[in-house]
Amino acid sequence: MLAINVAFIGGGKGCYDILHMLHSYKMAHVIPTVVAVVDPDTTGVGRVYAEQRGIPILSDFQELLRRDDLDLVIELTGKDAILADINRLKLPGIKVIDHLGAQFLWEIIDLQQERLALENKVRELDTMAAIGEISYRLTHRLRNPLMITGGLIRRMMTRIDLPHNIRQRLRHASTHVQEMEEVISEICDIVRPLRPHYELTDLTPFFLSWCKAARTEARMAGVLFEYEVEDGLPEMYIDPSLIRQALWHLIENSFDASTATGGTISLRVILCWDDIFIRLTDQGTGFGEMSPARALQPFTSTRTGRMGLGLSLCQQIILNHHGTLELYDDVKGGAAVVITLPIRIKNPAAPGEATAA
User: Fold this and answer.
1) Residues 6+ positions from 241 with CB-CB distance below 8 Å
2) Helix/strand/coil percentages in the chain, nearest 5
3) How many CB atoms are closer than 10 A to CB 183?
4) Which CATH architecture does the domain made up of 199-342 adopt?
5) How many CB atoms lie within 10 A of CB 39?
């Protein structure tokens, strides 16, 4: 296989898409190593993603183009003047793909991402089907007896003549029965088919409202929550209740991870072409020895006493909105979550559904 060193000039959405594909897809004929992303804009989604992945970040490309180990430059700025400077300054052996060639690449990337998303959806459905069978058995074998047992215990505790030591033991038993009922309920929630109720939602006030509520919760948890929601986000069809549910679970994970270590939780919501881009980061403990991909699997948790179903439910919600959810460890410490939601200007439940172009 051919090993090549690649640099990106332009750290926007196109850079993010290509970096994401390189991370998600193992190439068959080349081994690309991204040696730098160049962009003076510190807020570019591709630059931020690269920085969190540990890829070197530059604000100027002149020194980069004199490196004799650089094989390929992908120019993503869309500016002919910058392309001319690249061709003038680079060493003769460095190849260049300009923004026109990159547009062709993006079409291939879109097809590849659709295929990967379909494969992920099939895997998710297979997993949910297996868990559904387990849930069915648990529900019918355990839920009713537990409800009866819990009811009897609570009824016994209402007796006035009950000795104190017996009451304490019954209270202890009642607590454990309630915990078992909650476990079964949690399993049923994750395997129950989601039935989204899509509404045309103005996204800027929607996210701002949620962020204000989250800031209040963060203050109570003793952590700092900062957010940036782009003005003028479009209206699109989402299930507001399900999206809120996913966001709450993600930020509660960040609260738990940040309570001991402190630090800041940050949320950014912006428009990237025809996607809504959501990035949540914290400065907690990250995923530790567990891989982020493993963390998305059901019954997996980095915390003791948890069922490990919440992230699976979040992924299910995002998949139902035809989006993607990615987890990764931030090289600066902590965890990062990136969600992309394609803009939908027609109700997905209606015939002739379309995606914004």
Assistant:
1) 197
2) 50, 20, 30
3) 15
4) 2-Layer Sandwich (3.30)
5) 24
- Count CB neighbours of 252 within 10 A: 14
Which structure tokens are listed for 108? 């291939």
Q: Band of the pLDDT at 142, cuts 50, 70, 90?
A: confident
Tokens representing residue 106 in the block: 């993006």
Which CATH architecture fits 2-97? 3-Layer(aba) Sandwich (3.40)
Amino acid at site 302 = T
Token duo for residue 24: 């998600």
Contact 70, 94 (CB under 8 A): yes
- Strand partners of residue 342: 275
Domain segments of the chain as ranges? 2-97, 122-191, 199-342
d(CA 301, CA 311): 9
DSSP H/E element including 249: helix 240-261
- Residue 291: how many CA atoms within 13 Å on its side-chain side? 3
Question: How far is it, in rounded angstroms, from Cα 245 to Cα 242?
Answer: 5
- The torsion angles phi and psi of 29, rounded to 5 degrees, stand at -125, -20
Do domains 2-97 and 199-342 share one topology? The answer is: no
CA separation for the pair 137, 142 (Å, rounded)? 8
Q: Is the pLDDT of residue 306 over 70?
A: no
Among candidate residues 265, 271, 263, the one with its CA nearest the CA of residue 229: 271
Give the DSSP letter string of 133-147: HHHHHHIIIIIHHHH
Q: Is the pLDDT of residue 136 over 90?
A: no
Length in residues, the chain: 357
Query: CB count, 10 Å around CB of 212?
Result: 11
**Percent residues over pLDDT 90 in the chain:** 43
